[in-house]
Write a sequence for this structure.
C-alpha cells in the first residue's frame, strides 16, 4: 500500500498576535467600548486570537475616517496614482502568499492546497486586474469621467475570507471609493493581515478601514448614514434584512447571496471529467461555496454509471489536517455551521433520501463532516431546495433535456449552473435556458478577475469582477 | 510440429512454427517480479488466445459490435483530464512514503537502450546495472526488465540468465511499425526464440488514423499469438494518435485484442509519455477490469527522467487505477536516465546528503 506520509506546511511562517484591535484611519486601535471575541482554528478548536468587537461608535469613527480620506485624498487622486497603490498591494500579497495561505487555512479550516493554489492566486490577480482599470475608467463604457460613489460599507462571509475581501476592496479602490469592511467573525485574521499590508503599501490612512465583529457590527456598517454604497456577500436571509434597511435611503446596494446550483450531466458527457467536475463542484472548500453544484441532475440512462464512478472517486478524497499538502477536504468552518449541516442531512434521511459516504475517519477534535451524497432525492425534498453549505450533494435524475432545464430552474436561487455534454449545440441550448448568473460548460467553480460574477432571482443582484463589476462602484 | 495462428483482415492463417521456437528459450528464467518472489507470474497470465476465441473476437469486431463498442466509449474532455493530472501532480510525497515509492519505482523500471549504436558491450553493461543498480548497496532492488532491440536479445539473455530480471524486446518493426504483418510476426518470433520473455510491439498507427481499426486489432491478435507465453506490451504511440479520444479507443482496442500491457510511447516521438495520457490509460485498464475481469498493466515510456516525475506517476496509479496496480507486475516505467535519479534520491534519503552524479554508474 502506498501510504502518504504527513506533509504539513509549516505554521512557523505566520505570526498570529494574541489580540487584534480595529483598523481605523491607518492605525490599529482599541475598540471604544472594549468588547472582544475569539477566533478559533476549526480543525483543532484552539483559540487563535482575541479580536476586538466594533460597536456603533467604532463604526462611526471608521466611516468618518473613510469619508475624510475620500474627500481629501483618494477621491481627488488621479487614477494613475491610485493604480500604483493597488499594484503595490497586489505585489505584496503575491510575495506574502505562502504566509497568507497558511493563515487562511488555520483560521478557516480549508485545505492548504486550495488556499495556496486557488484563493491566494485569485486574490492577487484581483488586485492586479483592478489596478489596471484605475486609470482607464473613461473607457469602461460608463461614459466620460465616471465618478466614484463615495464610502462603501462592505460585509463579507467566512468561506473565502481574503478572496471576498479582494472582490470588494479592489474594485472599490480602483474606482476611487474608500471602504469600511467587516470580515466574518469566524475568519477575521487574513483581513487583519491585509490591514498590515495596506500599511506596508503606504496606503493613505482612512482609505481602507476594517471593523471586526459579528452581526451587530455588520448592521451598524450597512445602516450607517455616512455610507453611500453597501456590498454584501452572505446568506439570502441576511441579504433580505439589508435590502430592507437600505430601502429608501438612496444608498446603492449589491448582494451576492445563496445558491442551490444544478450540475447537469447529459448521457453524452465525458463521464470521467464530469465526475471530476461534480466532485469539484460540491466538495471544493467543503461545499462552503455559494455557487456550489449542490444538486446533481444526471440523465437516467447513465445515472448508475455516474454514481458508481462518483463513489469510487469520493473514496480517494483525503479528509484531515488542513495544513497537510495532501488534504482534499478540510474542517467545517464553525460548530454552528456543522450543526446546520447535520440538521439538514438528518432531514434528508428522514424524508426518505439515501445518504452515502466513503470510509472516512474523522479527527476527534475540530469540526468535521464526511463528504456525503444523497440518492433518491426528489424535487420536493428540503435537501433539494435549501442551501446546505456543506459537503453534501443531492442526486436527482431526469429523462429529457427539457426536464433537466425545468428541474434546474425550479429553485428560488439563480447563482450558477453546470452543464456536461460533448455536444456543442446541446450545450448552447442549455446555457440559453438556465436561469443562473453563471453557467459553466464542461467545468465548474472556475473564477477569474476578468469575468463578472453574480446571481439572478434570490441569489442577489449586481456583478463583481470584470468590466461589469466596476459599475457598482461608479456613479453612473 | 505445432502451429501459430494469426488473423489478418478477419481471416485466420496458420504458420508452422520452427522446432527451436518456444516460450522460454534456454537460459532465461520464467518471469519474476525482480524481488525474488516466486510464482507471481503463474496463473497471472492467460493462456494464449485460442483460435476459436480469436475467431469470436474478430467476428465480433467484423460484425461491427466490438467496433461500435469502441466508438461508443464516452468522450474525453481535454481540459478536465489535464486539470485532474495537474491536481495529482501536487501531491506531496515525503519521508517514509518517498522511500517506499523510490524502491517501488526502481523495481518497475524497464531499463532501456534502443539506439542504432547499441553494441553487445553497451547491452551487457546495462544488464549488469539492471541486476545491481547501486553497487554500493546490495539492498537496492533490481529493475523489472531490460528492454533492447531484437538483435541484442541473445547478448542480454546470456547476461540476465537466472537473475530474475525480465528481458523485453521491442518488435514488429519498431518504432514506426511500417512493415508487413509477416515481418512483424517473424520479428516477434525471433525475439521470443532468442530469449525475450516480454515483447513491446507498436500498433499500426497508419491503420488506426485512417479508421481501419479492424486491421490494428488483427495485427495485435497475430503478434500476441507469436508471443506464445511471452508477455505482450502494446505501444499506442500516443504522441501520434494526437487526441485523448483516440488514446482511449486505442487502449480498449489493444486490451480487447489481448494486450497484457498498454504502453504510451516508443520514446522516438515527441510528446512521449505525459501524466494526462497515462492517467487516461490507467482509467481504461481499471474500467476494462471492471467490465471483463481481466487486469491489464500500464507502461508510460519516454520523457520520465526525475524521481519527482516518477512519484507523480505512482500517485496517479494509486488514485486512478488503485493500489492493485502498484507492482512491477502491473506498472512499468520505460526509461533510461530515470534510474540514476532514483538512485541519487535513494542515497540522499539514506545518508541525508546528495552524493552527486559520480556516485551512480553511467552506462
Amino acid at each position: 500500500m502506498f501510504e502518504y506520509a504527513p506533509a504539513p506546511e509549516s505554521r512557523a511562517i505566520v505570526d498570529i498576535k494574541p489580540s487584534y484591535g480595529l483598523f481605523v484611519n491607518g492605525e490599529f486601535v482599541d475598540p471604544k467600548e472594549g468588547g472582544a471575541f475569539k477566533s478559533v482554528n476549526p480543525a483543532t478548536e484552539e483559540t487563535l486570537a482575541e479580536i476586538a468587537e466594533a460597536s456603533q461608535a467604532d463604526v462611526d469613527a471608521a466611516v468618518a475616517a473613510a469619508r475624510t480620506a475620500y474627500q481629501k485624498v483618494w477621491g481627488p487622486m488621479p487614477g494613475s496614482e491610485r493604480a500604483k497603490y493597488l499594484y503595490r498591494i497586489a505585489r505584496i500579497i503575491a510575495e506574502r502568499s505562502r504566509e497568507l495561505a497558511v493563515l487562511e487555512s488555520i483560521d478557516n479550516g480549508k485545505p492548504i492546497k486550495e488556499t495556496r493554489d486557488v484563493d491566494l492566486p485569485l486574490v492577487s490577480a484581483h488586485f492586479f486586474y483592478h489596478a489596471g482599470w484605475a486609470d482607464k475608467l473613461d473607457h469602461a463604457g460608463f461614459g466620460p469621467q465616471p465618478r466614484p460613489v463615495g464610502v462603501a460599507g462592505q460585509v463579507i462571509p467566512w468561506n473565502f475570507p481574503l478572496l471576498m475581501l479582494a472582490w470588494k476592496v479592489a474594485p472599490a479602490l480602483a474606482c476611487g471609493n474608500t471602504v469600511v469592511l467587516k470580515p466574518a467573525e469566524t475568519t477575521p485574521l487574513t483581513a487583519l493581515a491585509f490591514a498590515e499590508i495596506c500599511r506596508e503599501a503606504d496606503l493613505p490612512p482612512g482609505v481602507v478601514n476594517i471593523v471586526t465583529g459579528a452581526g451587530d457590527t455588520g448592521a451598524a456598517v450597512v445602516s450607517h448614514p455616512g455610507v453611500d454604497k453597501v456590498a454584501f456577500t452572505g446568506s439570502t436571509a441576511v441579504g433580505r434584512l439589508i435590502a430592507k434597511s437600505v430601502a429608501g435611503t438612496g444608498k446603492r446596494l449589491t448582494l451576492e447571496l445563496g445558491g442551490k446550483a444544478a450540475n447537469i450531466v447529459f448521457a453524452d458527457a465525458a463521464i470521467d471529467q464530469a465526475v471530476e467536475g461534480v466532485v469539484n463542484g460540491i466538495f471544493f472548500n467543503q461545499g462552503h461555496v455559494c455557487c456550489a453544484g449542490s444538486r446533481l441532475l444526471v440523465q437516467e440512462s447513465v445515472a448508475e454509471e455516474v454514481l458508481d464512478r462518483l463513489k469510487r472517486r469520493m473514496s480517494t478524497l483525503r479528509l484531515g489536517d488542513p495544513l497537510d499538502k495532501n488534504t482534499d477536504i478540510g474542517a467545517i468552518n464553525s460548530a454552528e455551521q456543522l450543526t446546520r449541516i447535520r440538521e439538514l442531512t438528518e432531514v434528508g434521511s428522514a424524508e426518505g433520501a439515501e445518504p452515502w459516504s466513503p470510509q472516512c475517519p474523522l479527527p476527534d477534535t475540530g469540526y468535521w463532516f464526511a463528504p456525503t451524497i444523497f440518492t433518491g432525492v426528489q424535487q420536493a425534498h428540503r435537501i433539494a431546495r435549501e442551501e446546505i453549505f456543506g459537503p453534501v450533494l443531492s442526486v436527482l435524475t431526469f429523462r429529457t433535456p427539457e426536464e433537466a432545464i425545468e428541474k434546474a430552474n425550479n429553485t428560488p436561487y439563480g447563482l450558477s449552473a453546470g452543464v456536461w455534454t460533448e455536444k456543442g449545440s446541446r450545450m448552447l441550448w442549455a446555457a440559453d435556458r438556465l436561469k443562473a448568473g453563471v453557467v459553466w460548460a464542461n467545468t465548474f467553480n472556475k473564477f477569474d478577475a476578468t469575468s463578472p460574477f453574480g446571481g439572478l432571482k434570490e441569489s442577489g443582484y449586481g456583478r463583481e469582477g470584470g468590466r461589469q463589476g466596476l459599475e457598482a462602484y461608479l456613479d453612473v | 510440429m505445432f502451429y501459430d495462428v494469426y488473423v489478418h483482415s478477419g481471416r485466420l492463417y496458420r504458420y508452422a512454427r520452427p522446432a527451436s521456437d518456444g516460450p522460454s528459450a534456454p537460459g532465461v528464467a520464467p518471469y519474476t517480479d525482480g524481488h525474488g518472489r516466486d510464482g507471481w507470474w503463474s496463473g497471472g497470465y492467460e493462456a494464449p488466445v485460442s483460435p476459436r476465441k480469436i475467431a469470436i473476437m474478430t467476428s465480433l469486431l467484423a460484425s461491427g459490435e466490438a467496433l461500435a463498442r469502441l466508438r461508443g466509449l464516452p468522450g474525453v474532455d481535454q481540459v478536465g483530464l489535464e486539470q485532474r493530472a495537474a491536481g495529482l501532480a501536487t501531491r506531496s510525497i515525503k519521508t517514509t512514503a518517498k522511500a517506499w515509492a523510490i524502491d517501488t519505482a526502481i523495481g518497475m523500471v524497464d531499463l532501456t537502450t534502443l539506439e542504432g549504436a547499441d553494441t553487445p558491450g553497451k547491452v551487457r553493461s546495462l544488464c549488469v546495472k539492471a541486476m545491481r543498480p547501486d553497487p554500493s548497496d546490495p539492498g537496492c532492488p533490481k529493475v523489472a526488465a531490460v528492454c533492447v532491440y531484437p538483435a541484442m536479445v541473445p547478448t542480454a539473455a546470456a547476461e540476465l540468465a537466472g537473475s530474475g530480471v525480465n528481458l523485453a524486446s521491442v518488435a514488429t518493426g519498431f518504432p514506426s511499425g511500417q512493415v508487413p504483418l509477416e515481418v512483424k510476426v517473424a520479428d516477434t518470433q525471433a525475439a521470443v526464440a532468442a530469449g525475450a520473455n516480454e515483447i513491446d510491439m507498436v500498433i499500426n498507427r497508419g491503420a488506426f488514423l485512417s479508421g481501419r481499426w479492424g486491421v490494428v486489432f488483427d495485427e495485435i491478435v497475430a503478434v500476441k499469438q507469436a508471443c506464445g507465453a511471452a508477455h505482450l506490451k502494446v505501444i499506442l504511440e500516443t504522441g501520434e494518435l494526437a487526441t485523448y479520444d483516440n488514446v482511449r479507443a486505442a487502449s480498449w482496442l489493444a486490451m480487447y485484442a489481448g494486450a497484457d500491457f498498454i504502453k504510451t510511447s516508443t520514446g522516438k516521438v515527441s510528446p512521449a509519455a505525459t501524466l494526462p495520457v497515462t492517467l487516461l490509460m490507467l482509467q481504461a485498464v481499471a474500467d476494462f477490469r471492471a467490465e471483463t475481469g481481466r487486469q491489464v498493466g500500464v507502461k508510460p515510456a519516454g520523457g520520465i527522467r526525475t524521481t519527482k516525475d516518477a512519484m507523480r506517476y505512482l500517485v496517479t496509479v494509486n488514485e486512478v487505477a488503485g493500489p492493485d496496480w502498484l507492482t512491477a507486475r502491473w506498472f512499468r516505467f520505460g526509461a533510461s536516465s530515470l534510474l540514476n535519479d532514483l538512485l541519487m534520491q535513494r542515497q540522499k534519503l539514506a545518508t541525508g546528503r546528495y552524493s552527486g552524479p559520480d556516485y551512480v554508474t553511467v552506462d
